[in-house]
Write a structure and sequence with these properties.
Helix content: under 10%
Order of helices and strands: HEEEEEEEEEEEEEEEEEEEE
Largest sheet: 8 strands, antiparallel
CATH superfamily: Exo-inulinase, domain 1
CATH architecture: Sandwich
Number of domains: 1
Shape: elongated
Radius of gyration: 26 Å
Length: about 270
Amino acid sequence: MLHRRCLASVALSLATLTAPALCSSTFGEEYLNGITWQAPPIVTPGETAADPPSDAIVLFGSSEDVKNWKNISNWTTEGDDLIAGKGAITSKEEFGDCQVHVEWSAPTPAKGNGQGRGNSGIFLMGRYEIQVLDSYENETYHDGQAGAIYKQTPPAANAMRPPGEWNTYDIYWTAPRFSESGDLESPAAITAVHNGVLILNHFELKGDTPYNRPPKYEAHSPTGPITIQDHGNPVRFRNIWVREFQPATGEQTREPFIRDGKKETPISETE
């Protein structure tokens, strides 16, 4: 039987012998895509996930922010809450691809049922609605409940909190693209998280979201406002902010290649 010190010595010797081989196979060749990337901008996150990051446009954070909205004179504020009144409100700022954060609370005590209880809506680009509704123990048609893309798809889960508690929507929006002649080139798409629960995962919209006809696309500007619906219920909103989204950018400055030490081999020569 080998002594423990002998075993340890053998193990160390084996590790020393195999280490160079492992390093060679892992780091010997490197794939490089030939793209020169621009440095991503530095964004300072908020203190919490709910707080706006440094590049966000705050649409409503306090009563002073009513100036950011059109047709808001019939809505009211209470502290840092915005309470739905008569008529829809529309942001003065317009957005294309973006990230939207909205917090909302259904009225308490709960009144009504179905679509008549805590009803509102967030309209991206002023025409594509993600439903706001008190769907806590409140049955209605599924593609009209909270988190639905109205009349197109239900949410994947009902993540509602009880009336009076705050709900959060984090929305990731890809605007539709149209050709110069007005034809649809690519549909709008939405990913949405409700109270930390993924409810829509890159859902491609079939068009706008009306009540009384099928959805359809009509060519429009590449940007549009955020609209919040009035449906006769005093739904509360707070902490509304938007980040315009720009994907990482780079330029293909050379053909993709494999680097092995000082040797560089274009991918086309390896196929």
